[in-house]
Each structure stands twice: as structure tokens, then as C-alpha cells.
Amino acid sequence: MILVTGGAGFIGSNFVLEWLAGGGEPVVNLDKLTYAGNLANLASLEGDVRHRFVHGDIGDRDLVERLLAEHGVRAIVHFAAESHVDRSIHGPEDFVATNVVGTFRLLEAARKHWGGLTGRDRDAFRFLHVSTDEVYGSLGPQDPAFAEANQYQPNSPYSASKAASDHLVRSYHHTYGLPVVTTNCSNNYGPFQFPEKLIPLVIHNALAGKPLPIYGDGMQIRDWLYVGDHCAAIRRALAAGVPGEVYNIGGNSEKPNLEVVQTLCAILDDERPRADGGPYADQITYVTDRPGHDRRYAIDARKIARDLGWQPAETFATGIRRTVRWYLDHQDWVANVTSGAYREWVQKHYA
Ligand code: NAD
Ligand code: DAU
Q1: Fold of 2-189+226-250+293-314
Q2: Pocket flag, ligand 1, residue 102 (CB < 6 Å)
Q3: Nearest ligand 1 atom, CA 194
Q4: Distance CA 317, CA 294 (A)
Q5: Which of ligand 1's atoms lies nearest the C-alpha of 78?
Q6: What pTM, to 2 d.p., does this model score?
Q7: Residue ranges of domains in the chain
């Protein structure tokens, strides 16, 4: 079996669904079900004996040790994290608790479990740590894209907590020999993304006739990757990544936020025209910038292409239309997650 942490969140649930659809081994899915975790993402697995959901915290070492031993886990794919930059600015403590302390405890449990394995089981064991490009800091307009050897310069409490977790993971390989592989990926989009993040938030607000908030001048650049491509890259890194190595994952798709929002508006104009016939772009509203907002991210993904043969299958043009259609077809999912707690967040952050 494999242990997936955070498998009820956005990327984790896409990973679990695709892993099992592709004939992967059974999954133990450990998730705390924070506001970002949603079992509805996994509804299609109901009754599927290959998926065992466990409601719990990665920081609960006894629980993790028990799961690893009970299920003879041969790999951990570690997604669980607090993942939203704006929330880390409002309240960084949960980010330290889960991303730093939680990852540390998970590593300790993994070290104990791996220490008890022998022969081929020991050689085959992997700890795959899912991280972010944000640990590298912010690029100027002409700077080369982030490569694996770039210096770490995290700028938000979120990216600092992820950077700390990356360092702990690295140290467990260097010091104890734990067979870890780390991936640092750019911005994902696709089904099941909580509508606090730019793309699902804009789709949701557009349809609800609400403002589409652009932080600052909207010229911050992100490198967008369809979530299915990220999951495929993780599967490759798990199968063939070299222990101790880091792989950057990106979509070769740098776009300023304003262009992303305008693209979403144009697709919605086409797929679901406004009742009054006006363009959704009329709802674009410039709001106060995010404190410490990173200006540009870009990923140099040549290493994973060269060493593991991974390339993204979706372009931004194909992936974003597919994503808009998914949200249009799953308005019940959106209604379900935009509950009371979600409305409180919007009130607090955008007021
Ligand atoms: P998400 O916020 O959608 O999901 C996180 C999941 O982790 C949720 O299901 C939540 O319930 C669970 N969780 C949180 N704290 C936990 C704890 N203490 N114990 C167990 N479960 C816990 O996040 P996401 O966007 O799917 O990101 C997944 C991972 O990928 C994160 O590590 C993130 O840093 C990384 N990442 C995300 C992106 C992106 O664009 N979303 C890009 C690169 C890397
Ligand atoms: O780069 C990878 C990272 O991408 C992941 O590690 C994070 O978990 C993930 O949340 C994402 O971080 P960002 O901060 O880049 O994503 P977000 O969707 O929050 O914002 C994308 C850009 O859009 C960013 O420049 C901020 C801007 N933005 C965001 C929101 C929510 C707006 O202009 N308005 C908004 O309302």
C-alpha cells in the first residue's frame, strides 16, 4: 500500500483518483479534513476497497506509526499542508504546526518504519515530499527560471514553512539515509480546487455576479500547470526519482494574473453568457495588493523532462477551458464547499 497524506485536498484527491484509475496499489489516505479537505472529492471511490480513508493529523506520530506498520506501507506521498498564502499572512501558526512540525513528525514515523524494513522492502521504500516553487522567492522580469540548485528565498509564512519542511526532508536523507524525493511545483489549476485560490475564485465570483479581485496591478506572473500533469509528474518521481534528488515541475506557461482572469472571462462569455449580455470582464476590480507579494515565478523543468521523461500534456489553453467546464458542470460541488466558514473568510480577507 501507499500512504497519501492530504488526499482529500485539491491535488491529493486528484492524485488518489488518478493513481487508482491507473491501477496503482491500494491507498491509505490520511487527512485532517481542515476547511480545504473534502471527502466529496473522493465520492466516486465510495465502496472501493482499494481506498481506505483515515481522519487524522500527520502530526499524530502514534497514529502514523500504526498506519505504516499495519498496512506495510511501501511509500508515502506527502501532500498534507496548509497551502494558501493569504491565510498564512492572516494566521501563520497553523502553517508552522502542519507544514513544519507535522512534516517533522511524519519523517520521524517514516524513519522508524523504514528502519524496521529489510532487503528489497527497505530498498524500495520512498518518501515523496510535495513542495512548491515559492520556496525559491521571486524573480525579476529577465531572470532565468528557478532551477533545482537555486538558493531558497521564501517570502511568505507559507513559503517559509514549506522551505523549512524541504530542509527537514533533505536532512533526513543526508543524515539517516531515508530515501526521500522532493518535487517543487508551480501553480496548479483544475477540478476540486478550493475557491479561495485565484482561478476557482474568479469562476465562482463571475457566475455569482461578484467582483473579480485583482491584487495590485495584476501583472504578477505565475507558471500554470494543469493538476493532472502535476499528478503524472509525481507518479514518475515516485517510480523513477533518485533518492535525495529534487525535481522542479512546471507548465512552461507563464502568465500575468490579469491575463489569466481575462482568459477566464472570455471563456465564460462563450460557455455561459451573462444574463444581461455584458462581458464578465466588467466585474474585474483592482484591490489592495497582497503584502510581500512575489512578482514572478517560473520553473525550469528540464531536469524532470531529461531524467524522468515527464512533459505536461495540457497547454494552458486546453487545460483552462477544461477546468472552466468542470466548474460549470459541478456547481453543486462549489455550493457545498462555499459554506458558512468560506463566507467568513471572504468577508475577513476582501472586506
Ligand atoms: P489543499 O489546501 O487543497 O489541501 C491540503 C490537504 O491537506 C487538505 O485535504 C487538508 O485537510 C489536509 N491537511 C491539512 N493539514 C493537515 C494535517 N495536519 N494532517 C493531515 N491532513 C492535513 O492543498 P493543495 O493545493 O492540494 O496542495 C497540496 C500540496 O501541494 C501542498 O503541500 C502544497 O504546498 C503543494 N503545492 C500546491 C500547489 C498548488 O498550486 N496548489 C503547487 C505546488 C505545490
Ligand atoms: O506557486 C505554487 C503555489 O501556488 C502553491 O505553493 C500554493 O499552495 C498555491 O496556493 C499557489 O500560490 P499563489 O499565491 O500563487 O496562488 P493564488 O491562487 O492564491 O494566487 C495566484 C495569483 O493571483 C497571486 O499572484 C495572487 C493573485 N490573486 C489571488 C487571489 C486569491 C489575486 O490577484 N486575487 C485574488 O483574489
Answers
A1: Rossmann fold (3.40.50)
A2: yes
A3: 3
A4: 24
A5: 32
A6: 0.98
A7: 2-189+226-250+293-314
